[in-house]
Design goal:
Elements: H1 2-10, H2 29-38, H3 50-58, H4 77-87, H5 91-101, H6 107-114, E1 122-125, E2 128-131, E3 136-138, E4 157-161, E5 167-171, H7 172-177, E6 181-183, E7 198-202, E8 208-213, H8 214-219, E9 223-227, E10 257-258, E11 264-275, E12 284-289, E13 295-301, E14 306-312, H9 330-333, E15 341-344, E16 365-370, E17 377-383, H10 389-394, E18 398-404, H11 406-409, E19 419-427, E20 449-452, E21 455-456, E22 459-464, E23 466-473, E24 480-486, E25 489-494, E26 496-501, E27 504-512, E28 515-517, E29 522-528, E30 537-542, E31 552-562, E32 585-596, E33 600-607, E34 626-629, E35 632-640, E36 646-650, E37 655-662, E38 668-669, E39 682-685, E40 689-697, E41 702-708, H12 711-715, E42 719-725, E43 752-753, E44 762-764, H13 775-778, E45 790-791, E46 798-799, E47 818-820, E48 827-828, H14 844-847
Parallel strand pairs: 11-14, 13-18, 19-23, 22-31, 32-35, 34-42, 44-47, 45-46
Antiparallel strand pairs: 1-2, 2-3, 4-5, 4-6, 7-8, 7-9, 10-11, 11-12, 14-16, 15-17, 17-18, 19-20, 20-21, 23-29, 24-25, 24-28, 24-30, 26-27, 26-29, 30-31, 32-33, 35-40, 36-39, 36-41, 37-38, 37-40, 41-42, 43-48
Helix pairs in contact: 4-5
Length: 851
Amino acid sequence: MAKKIRYLAHSSLVGMILLLSATADGRNPIANDWDDYYGVGGTSGIESSSLAIMEAATGSKCQLCHTDSGGGSPWNAYGWALIQAVTGNDWVGAFIAIEAMDADGNGDSNLDEIMTDAQPGWTTTGNIAIAGDGTQIPVPEANIPPASPLDPPTAMAFACCLTSGACSVLTTSDCIVAGGTPDTDNTSCFPNMCPQPTGACCNLEETCSDNIAADLCIASGGAPQEPGSQCSDVEVDCGLEPFVDALPIPGVLAPIGMRPDGTPQYEITVLSAQQQLHNELPLTELWTYNGAYPGFTIEARVDEPVEVTYINDLPPGGHLLDVDECSHGANYYSDSPRIVTHLHGGHVPSRFDGQPEYTLLPGETDVYEYPNAQLPATMWYHDHALGITRLNVYGGMAGYYLLRDDIEDALGLPAGEYEIPAVIQDRQFNPDGSLSYPTSVQDTFFGDKILVNGKVWPTLAVKKGKYRLRFVNGSQARPYSLRLENQGAPAQVIPFTLIGADLGLITAPIEQESLEITPAERLDVIVDFASLPTGTRIVLRNDDATSPLIPNVMRFEVIDMVGHTDPVPPILRPVTPIPETDAEITRWFRLERVSESCAGNEWLIRTLDGPGGTPTGSEHWDDLSELVQIGSTEIWEFENPGPIMHPMHVHLVAFQVLDRTRLSDGTVLPLGAHEIDSWKDTVAVPPGTRVRIIARFDDHLGRFPYHCHILDHEDHEMMRQFVMVNDTTHCDSDGVCEAGEDGFGCATDCAQVSGALCGNGLCEIGDGEDCTSCSADCNGVQLGGADDFCCGNGGANPIACGTDTTDNRCIDTAADRFCRIAARVEATCGDLLCEGQETAANCAQDCSVPF
């Protein structure tokens, strides 16, 4: 036996019953060895033990293990010792037990020695086996370690057909336990040969189909229900039924008055409201513009200014959604319901751009003026509060702003009822109908329902004619690949006619079978339903592969009426490319994620010293390294070495896309039709690419953001500022800040002062405010007596404050008082933004205007 134990100990094969090469009689040699020493045959007995599995694998019984010499049970002392070792995966001990059985070379005499129930077992010490009666049996090989761990034998696995029609590779016993049927002729589930039950299938688009085989349901992306089930069964719930709610068309906002100069005045109040977003959902609480989601549409004319008063009428206290205080902004304003509105695509002064730090708390108002000195365009207004933009927009703060002029009106494009604004957004709901959103900032958030104009998968009845669809991708991060599909003839191609991009019409219409649109982009298209029979149903599909897959967007149903049938003009609005040679400067940026202690990571826009170059150190919101001279033309290059597409948005300007190349080898990649000779403010920078844009920076001094429009990225540092500055040659150094001068290029005349402002509800201790210098902001929640303290760095018992410390005594949410430890960017005279400690006395150029 010694030679057998030594062979097992030094073998590199694994398993108690090793698959060795067969002997002359065709049997595994270990099986023959087993027979030689422990007998052949014997009845089956102990089915549940590991030893029984060993015995079954060899086709033999261990005669020395049983009191009846292999009859099956009960175990004798050696058998008991062996099964304990096997059950405990003690394979060295198991072989020691086997060696002990034959230690004296005579199995029969050895059997006589221990064949009694009085022997309870044995133990080992070194190479000595000690029987239960104290008898010591030398085991020479007991201390020889195996060359590799010896695992128990693996039972044969076969294809197992489950009642659901699914196939799984299981052992015969496991298959039976699972209620399946073993298919011992197959060891693989590919292909699945199992009989398929039929029943209800919950389709990917949340519809239900009856009598569908389970495998076909799964192959189409669906979820098979119980065999024999029907869609009408109460237990079958496939989600929200699509195409049951009519598409809402946002109403046009009416002015509330007129200024003496004829400027119309609008009022937009942000307030909490409830709205049903699908007829199977309860009411959803939203934060809305004037009680509607999406907000009312502002219609304006080119070169005719409008005035908008924004009012924060949200309830004081916490936010509608969970606020991650790791985000910049939320780290000092906590979860307060702050708002500030940005006109996306607007060419506006810095003062009215919706500066992310210039937020309004409940009860506060601000007045903006939009000059509308730009080409007609599909724009939209949405919230832009620092650190909580994603939450405010998700909560409902978005609306259309359509700019028109006489030239576009004369083209005869579909208008009135034939012009449909359609903002596409994805959402996720809790069972009670409330909005569901992650509690912490994410790399990306993708909902599982698509809403158009605030309804889940709506439907629109269309007449036989042309419709102008103004698409906005208002989603947090989801891109869309849009296609029209005739439900009755899926192979039929129904084209879109592209007529415009973000900031206006293109030169000539372009027919497209599909549309690609990333967050914040706009597409202006025409669809012609004239040739389709009455009753035809056309589904707007989403073919983008982003998970979770959502194939439906909305549906059009053709009715028996004639609509707009005028032809689309062959020339729309010529777009002249900006020559690259016009650019005086090129700037380079890298888009990437880095580790960050609070949220785990943050996304950055890093300024580089050249193409593919080294970061200069400017990468955060307050790093004002991009000083752009008024009247200049610049090329900006965004490179994205990471795994996530970034839709980059630049405020103030209309730019053109020059090219998109692969980072790895410089291969030029094709641009989308909407990116060629068009005016844009947002461009997709896919993974592993570099995108170049060119823009003219004609006017408007001051700071303007540029950022990724994946809103979780924007809220966690993927937003920077560029500063529009004057030509330094205008500086006359006369001590007076005059037109054409500013604090960046003419510091001798235009001073920079603290950006802090006492009375704004923010104790800005980084700018020197404290309980003495600004009690209005820095009083805190005092307890009286010896517990009095001073928010800031002065007074008695000074303390730091803010949610970015562990001491929140200086925060008084009931009084709208919050804290900021970091210093603000300094206010700069000459940037036409009256801020911080600027006044009409120390900076008339910025602070003498009425707004």
